[in-house]
Amino acid sequence: MKPKILILLALACLASGCATHRLTYYPHTAYATNSFTSKSGHSFKVIHTTEKDRFHEETESREKSPAPKPDTNGGKAGPAALDLEPGNAAAADQDEFEGTDRAAAKTSIAAASTEDFQNLKALLATLPKDKAMRSHQPPISKGKSSNRISEEMRNVSVDAFLFASKKEEDNDYHIILGNAPKGLFNKFMNVEVSGIPVQGPSRQALISARHEFEAFFTANNALPGTSGYAHYQPPIHVKMSGSLFYDIDHKPGKVGPNKIRPRTSWEIHPVTHVEFEP
Fold it and tell me: 222: how many CB neighbours lie within 10 A of its CB?
């Protein structure tokens, strides 16, 4: 077929919306798959990989660490969900927040009303540019007691699609949200279900949000583990609520799996409510 004809066909496909966002799963990163049908009757394929964030990849390359061993459990990934009903202590190591950088901000909820967004694109359009945030004055401290700055004093709720998730070493869950379930020009954002603070006014709300997230995947034998990102085909429709947070630790494009890394370091962190298939 002549090149001109191929170009015209491609443009027609884009105009008609037939272009889809395809994920690439390399044999050396995908180690297990399983499927589930949700309560609403939708079927999803889960691809468990050893793919990590780019900053992890770079660190492991410098240290020449051996490849991580996958969390295999008969083709299922991740630990069993804990009973995190309000009132119970989050004493288990796998649920307490174990990070240090900006711990105060990561485990606190902004004192603000909730802004509702119909899609992720609309939310991202309201955020300050990364260049401005990375040269913020005064500089954003990475200290453990670093609280929210004025730009982070916002609570949001957004309708989006969950493409992938992974449990981190600090016990946060990294969640990659997309603006739409498909499309060549999709937009992405990292969202984090926080590990539980030992104490503080946000503790019970974060326990509740963590329970909502884990309960859905545990019921479907698909709770993400620490070995790498689990990808969902098709992406899962969700409504996520939480406080805005700027990740000064990692430059844009360092968090998330290949092909779906957000271009911003803005996050929703912590998540305060998650609704699956609204």
Answer: 21
Q: What is the pTM of this model?
A: 0.80
Sign of the CA dihedral 161, 165, 171, 172? Answer: negative
Question: Could you report the per-residue pLDDT of 128-171, keeping only the tens digit for each?
Answer: 999 999 999 999 999 999 999 999 999 999 999 999 999 999 99
Burial class for 138, CB neighbours closer than 10 Å (0-12, 13-18, 19+): exposed
Element (H, E) at 34: strand 30-37
Amino acid of residue 56: H
Structure tokens at 145: 């007691």
Tens of pLDDT along 160-212?
999 999 999 999 999 999 999 998 889 999 999 999 999 999 999 999 999 99
Contacts of 258 (CB under 8 A, 6+ apart): 24, 51
Q: Do residues 236 and 44 lie in contact, with contact meaning Cβ atoms separated by under 8 Å?
A: yes
Tokens encoding 87: 């009132």
One-letter identity of residue 207 = I
